[in-house]
Amino acid sequence: MRYTVIHNDQNHALELGAASDGPRTFLLNGESHSVEVVYLPNGVVSLLVDGRSYDVDFERPAGAQDVLDPRVNVRVRGEVFQLAVMDERQARLQAAAHRGAHHDGPHNILSPMPGKVVKLLKEVGATVKAGEGVVVVEAMKMENELKSAGPGVIAEIKCKEGQPVEAGTVLVVVGPLV
Among residues 5, 53, 87, 145, which is most buried (max CB within 10 A)? Predict the structure, then answer.
């Protein structure tokens, strides 16, 4: 499985090898590592990474709204690291939602992959905040709520509910606040 891990605004590529009874391998930014994982009853995960032992505790940060929120706090040796962990699909959705977007100006909300528009959450003229849902697209049997990258006003809706869309199709245009 491939993941994107964001720490301090830097993206890191993480690829996990197949699960096995012994050590697993993983690639972090192309560098190979060996890891053994033991899940302890208190929710802590004991890791042996390249021969070094770590007890790791994971927790959802305050403000995490649902299970799809990629943010996680990781505590290792008393230090807390704030990460966002996304699988390939989540990373594609985030990239598509932010492609060409300026948080303080007009931007387009694009379909991240081929699918079907399931629901329009806003109408032309509605004000939206950064991160607020605007349109729902079903792709690969999953409903994906596409959000505004920044504050603005819905200037144009270029799709209809039930409409099939291709990847990269402009669905909604968010204009500047006036």
Answer: 5
